From TrEMBL:
Transmembrane regions listed in the UniProt entry: none
Lineage top rank: taxon: Bacteria
Name of the featured protein: Regulator
InterPro entries xrefs: cNMP-bd_dom, cNMP-bd_dom_sf, RmlC-like_jellyroll
One Pfam short name: cNMP_binding
CDD domains: CAP_ED
Annotated Cyclic nucleotide-binding domain residues: 9-78
Organism of derivation: Streptomyces tirandamycinicus
Amino acid sequence: MNAPATAGMLRALPAEYRGRLMRSAREVSFPQGTRLFEEGGRADRFWIIRTGSVDLDMCVPGRRAAVIETLRHNELVGWSWLYAPHAWHLGAEATSPVRAYEFDAVAIRLMCQDDPALGVSVAEWVGGVLAHRLRATRTRLLDLYAPYGSGSRQL
């Protein structure tokens, strides 16, 4: 799944902007089973996975949460921090021990506001990730709930 939009910040942003963002990162770790966030919660941070995996899931009334996508090394966890109303659109859970870089969303939004070129680069990076996630969500939900699935499988 290393499409350009989701290949990670390390490849998506110019070196100058990567460096600026990484200087504000803090290293964190989560044990398996940790909920990073819940749908509807305040999106005040985001992560880049260093090791481990995180499932993105969506609440489905009357059913168990549907796993939309599994994220791994160098992938962005969380995009809702960038766009108002800054509330999580999905949930996320560590499915293995995770080490990640954590970023303060307010600080990064202020950096982007102060440097419009950085803001455009970050918006393009996160927008590309968002577009990919929406396609993945659509496909996963069709596979789970449509009578004939997404149609992406060949018979």
